[in-house]
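Consider the tokenized backbone below.
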């Protein structure tokens, strides 16, 4: 992609355009694509209230053109989460206003490796005998190679348009803690109608944003594929680095402040003696290492995904930009 396109996609990304609409509900309309502009189908789920508050509400499938639309009964604060197989999931806070449509463009970043993706080992629907089949449990046996599951073990019912977080095998008090591996479950009220497995979709994202493929009927997991986004060569420069930083890093880091967003603010990074989180000396090698491998295994809670799949020139550009902060 030419640089001008990259810049354009960054500016549009996250921009909120207010449109006129019939009074009543609030609407979120979105487009999902990768950095090369290809539309990405998948799943869009909303949290009601705070982003990462883990109160799940409405959702929808994102179609082949990368488009989706979610209507909610009330305006207010929501957390939008977008998932597409092979890409890091994208969280974003959105403010919806009654009678209006908010439009978002979401650019997803491919996962460099799928080796750390959570795994859905088994899935089943089990009527609960004790309650005359009025409750059916959806059960998901979940593993995670790097053992940093979070609260996002999610189910989506396409008929009702609702998303749910499944209950973990044991209670977890702090959402930032690593969640256990094992059997997650969701009780579904089947007193009026039996469960229809075709309606159900499943996706899991861990603390490092590694995401499973979206599992749909007949619910047989396939080996995950790594996606490659082909983009034209970019010049190695601090300017390119600024664009890349916008695309990959601003979600979690300020470049003009030192306080924490999800990760530490990176203003003045190369003027420091030690790196803000690991306290290792500031050096090109140590920063490069962080970009390549993401968070060290001992980091708990919010973790940085690895960017080792970026072309060497892009990493060089990022470093040039970080030096200007
Ligand atoms: C999903 C959130 C997320 C994204 C995206 C992200 N980071 Fe981070 N980053 C973190 C977190 C959390 C930490 C603190 C924990 C740690 O050190 O791993 C961190 C730490 C760092 C550090 C300090 C490391 C240290 O040793 O103290 C640097 C430098 C850094 N990130 C650079 C980047 C760059 C450059 C990008 C974009 C290519 C990026 N990050 C993208 C979350 C993120």
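A designed sequence for it:
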């Amino acid at each position: 992609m030419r640089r001008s396109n990259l810049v354009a996609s960054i500016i549009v990304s996250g921009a909120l355009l207010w449109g006129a609409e019939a009074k009543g509900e609030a609407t979120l309309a979105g487009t999902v694509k990768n950095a090369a502009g290809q539309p990405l189908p998948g799943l869009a789920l909303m949290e009601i209230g705070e982003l990462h508050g883990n109160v799940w509400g409405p959702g929808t499938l994102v179609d082949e053109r990368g488009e989706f639309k979610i209507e909610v009964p009330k305006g207010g604060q929501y957390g939008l989460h977008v998932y597409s197989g092979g890409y890091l999931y994208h969280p974003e806070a959105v403010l919806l206003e009654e009678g209006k449509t908010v439009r978002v463009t979401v650019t997803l970043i491919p996962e460099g490796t799928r080796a750390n993706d959570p795994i859905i080992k088994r899935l089943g629907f089990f009527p609960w005998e004790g309650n005359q089949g009025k409750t059916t449990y959806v059960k998901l046996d979940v593993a995670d190679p790097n053992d940093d599951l979070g609260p996002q073990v999610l189910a989506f019912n396409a008929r009702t348009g609702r998303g749910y977080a499944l209950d973990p095998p044991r209670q977890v008090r702090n959402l930032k803690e690593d969640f256990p591996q094992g059997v997650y479950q969701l009780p579904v009220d089947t007193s009026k109608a039996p469960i229809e497995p075709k309606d159900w979709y499943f996706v899991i994202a861990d603390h490092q944003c590694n995401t499973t493929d979206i599992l749909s009927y007949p619910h047989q997991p396939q080996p995950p594929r790594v996606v490659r986004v082909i983009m034209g060569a970019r010049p190695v420069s601090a300017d390119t680095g600024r664009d890349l930083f916008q695309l990959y890093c601003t979600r979690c880091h300020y470049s003009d402040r030192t306080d924490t967003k999800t990760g530490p603010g990176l203003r003045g990074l190369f003027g420091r003696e030690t790196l803000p989180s690991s306290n290792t000396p500031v050096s090109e090698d140590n920063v490069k290492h962080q970009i390549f491998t993401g968070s060290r295994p001992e980091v708990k809670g919010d973790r940085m995904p690895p960017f080792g799949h970026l072309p060497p020139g892009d990493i060089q550009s990022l470093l040039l930009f970080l030096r200007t902060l």
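The domain at 3-108 is CATH 2.60.40.10 (Immunoglobulin-like).
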